[in-house]
Specification:
With 200 residues, this protein is of the alpha+beta class. It folds into 2 domains: 2-37 and 73-185, PH-domain like (Roll); 41-69, no CATH class. Helix content is 28%, strand content 28%. The protein has helices at 2-14, 42-49, 52-55, 65-71, 82-92, 120-124, 178-185, and strands at 24-31, 75-76, 97-101, 104-114, 127-138, 142-147, 157-162, 167-172. Strands 1, 2, 3, 4, 5, 6, 7 and 8 form an 8-stranded antiparallel beta sheet that branches. The two termini are 30 Å apart. Residues 40-47 have low confidence and may be disordered.
Length: 200
């Protein structure tokens, strides 16, 4: 119910970004995924933990081992891969929203803009929701999506795979929106060439 309500509430704002017969299947606000984006070196992190400046709060962050153990990997794939570009765009957006259509997956920003141009009505009068496209990916470039493992710290998290073998994690807020978004993206199909990469 919450998914239909949210999708219906933003459809009018998203409509100008869609082609004439393009259908909006699901939508959700996104939050930054707290998983790690780089490989974790346990040896390096143990050495960093021995640095006394870290214990005093003066040193650098000790590492990502605990973050990786609790949340998992946020993105996999080399610099320039489809997933890394997609994840970085979502990560940099101030308040990203995900829209899944029958043709594309869009990341948009949605703002409320006043209908009146001046005076007190500009601030107190009616407003309308306006969507701005941040980035988009064709459905043909997406292999599919799966819900992340269950857990208190992983609710709303799902993995999305790209045709070049890379993948990234997105997090829906509220978490109840993740299931319909994953269903709208679809079950993963095998990539053209298996790269052996896996997101945990």
């Amino acid at each position: 119910m919450a998914s239909r309500d949210y999708t219906a509430s933003v459809e009018s704002a998203l409509r100008p970004l869609l082609a004439g017969d393009e259908r909006l299947l699901a939508a959700s606000p996104l939050v930054k995924d707290p998983g790690t984006t780089e490989d974790v070196s346990a040896g390096d992190e143990l050495i960093n933990l021995l640095d006394p400046t870290i214990l005093l709060g003066l040193g650098t962050h000790p590492g990502n081992a605990v973050q990786r153990a609790v949340f998992g990997r946020a993105v996999t794939g080399p610099a320039g891969s489809a997933a890394r570009r997609f994840f970085d765009t979502v990560d940099a957006a101030p308040a990203p929203k995900l829209a899944v259509t029958d043709r594309r997956i869009l990341i948009v920003g949605i703002d409320a803009r006043p209908r009146a141009s001046g005076g007190w009505r500009r601030w107190l009068g009616p407003s309308e929701m306006v969507a701005t496209l941040v980035t988009e990916t064709s459905r043909a470039d997406i292999l599919g999506a799966v819900a992340a493992p269950a857990g208190v710290l992983r609710r709303g998290r799902f993995l999305i795979g790209f045709g070049d073998g890379s993948g990234c994690v997105l997090v829906c807020a509220p978490p109840s929106l993740a299931e319909p978004v994953v269903a709208a993206i679809g079950t993963p199909r095998p990539p053209a060439a298996d790269t052996g990469r896996e997101i945990q």
